[in-house]
Amino acid sequence: TYEFIRDSAGADPSLRKLFVRALAWETTDADLHEAFAVYGPIQEAVVIVDRNTGRSRGFGFVTFATLAGAQAALRSPSKIINGRTTSCSLASMGTAKSNATKSLAVATASAASALAKSTGDDTALRKLFVRGLAWSTTAETLRTVFGTYGAIEDATVAFDRATGQSRGFGFVTFSTVDGATRALQEPSKTIDDRTTHCNLAIQGVLNKQARLMGHRNAATLAALGLLDHNSP
Fold first, then answer.
1. Which of 20, 67, 176, 188 would disulfide-bridge 10, Cβ 3.0–4.6 Å?
2. Is residue 211 classed as helix, strand or coil in its secondary structure?
3. CA 86/CA 80 separation, integer angstroms
């Protein structure tokens, strides 16, 4: 019975195909094959290149011939290839993460709507958390960047009380829900040459709820369908 289950799982290529990121630009299919062949026979190894330039996009895929080979490679996810530290994971996990992110966005919006309805205050639907800020980014810069989506009620950057240095995140509160909604349609924004990300600030409350339930963050609960949309 064990052998039957193992063989059936091994027949599924999604359990044998790995995603490899952070490749050096010069890494080739052959380099990828050689690096992973120590774990088991390789069915395919390919570096993804830009169609127009032919240059590597910095990631690739490795499909093992056996489930055991893929499992062995995943036990050591970080590998040095052409002098670069790379990381591998099951390629199919990308879809799972995407679904969890979508579920979390729905759960966050539901929680914000429930809070607004119960309190008569729609701040939860207008206040965004912005992370990944450059140390030099100011509240005025946040106001300028996000002001393109709608009128801003407030914009602040969080600072360390002891050092006075930026903590790398901030908050933006729009005057209207429509403004916040437009900003959230483009969650990643380049500010002061840094790629930042924004989401409804209430998501932090949902993450606390998740940790109280023994999970790392709300994305885990969202993926499992266990997040309480009405308990911010």
1. 67
2. helix
3. 6
